[in-house]
Amino acid sequence: MPKRKYKIAVIQLNLNDVAENNLKKCISWVKDAATKGAEVILLPELYSSHYFCQSEDVDNFALAEPLYSTSFIAFSALAKELGVVIIVPFFEKRMAGIYHNSAYIIDTDGTEAGLYRKMHIPDDPYFYEKFYFTPGDLGFKAIETQKGKIGTLICWDQWYPEAARITALKGAEVLFYPTAIGWHPKEKEQYGENQYGAWMNVMKGHAVANGVFVAAANRIGLEKYIEGTDGIQFWGASFIAGPQGEILAQASHDQEEILIAEVDLDLQENVRQNWPFFRDRRIDAFGDITKRAID
């Protein structure tokens, strides 16, 4: 029988380094999280490199890797060694000219429990992801693992209640959001508090509306690698929320950290019994949600 309680971990790191060093760092931190009792462990978005989407540069495609190569081999062995589930976000080269922002869900025996490809792709100043990533074509998923049934969405997906809803309706107990989000340094003083607050609030809202646990792993640090720009100051603040939007664990804005919290399925069931949002959905009236605009 599936466990009614299990521990999840979010790892918040500075990843402004080369792939080999980032891989070694992440392996070390995953081991530390497992030692602390974590059973499902989440890394930040695009773990293996600096956030290269600050520019549109074809040389950055060299950072991508084919399926089941470096990242999968390393973390598959690690998951089997530790007996944990690891969510590994990576830059996928599917074929020449088609690349995805993806995540492996690797089970406790080292096998692939699932693969997710980021569905929503942004194109904002210094977040030029449409240049690199083809939108995901695998849909929204709830993945069965030996520890629990989980859903993975990636960064920009976090702003879309439809993505959270569908993943939860498919049975996900936790929504995991590997993330790379930060401030433009010149805007931080004027807009920073509201930007960060919106990021927190929208995901806490997903937790409440769907009666699920939500875990977000961000990176930290100023990543400034393009001459003449201010870079991006990643704001950290990774967190784990419960099914009423309550914060179970919260990281700082500027420190590398491991957050651990317990997923309690009896609590989740109780919350959904008392707040029966799924029961009261008027699915007969939602047809227009699939339209781009209701003119």
Automatic annotation (TrEMBL):
Domain (CN hydrolase): residue spans on this chain: 6-265
Keyword Iron-sulfur tagged: no
SUPFAM superfamilies: Carbon-nitrogen hydrolase
Stored CDD domains: CPA
Gene3D superfamilies: Carbon-nitrogen hydrolase (3.60.110.10)
Example GO biological process: putrescine biosynthetic process from arginine
Pfam family, one: CN_hydrolase
InterPro entries: Aliph_Amidase/BUP (IPR050345), C-N_Hydrolase (IPR003010), C-N_Hydrolase_sf (IPR036526)
GO MF, one annotated term: N-carbamoylputrescine amidase activity
UniProt key word rRNA-binding: no
PROSITE patterns in the record: CN_HYDROLASE
Keywords: Hydrolase
Entry protein name: Carbon-nitrogen hydrolase
Organism of origin: Flavobacterium geliluteum
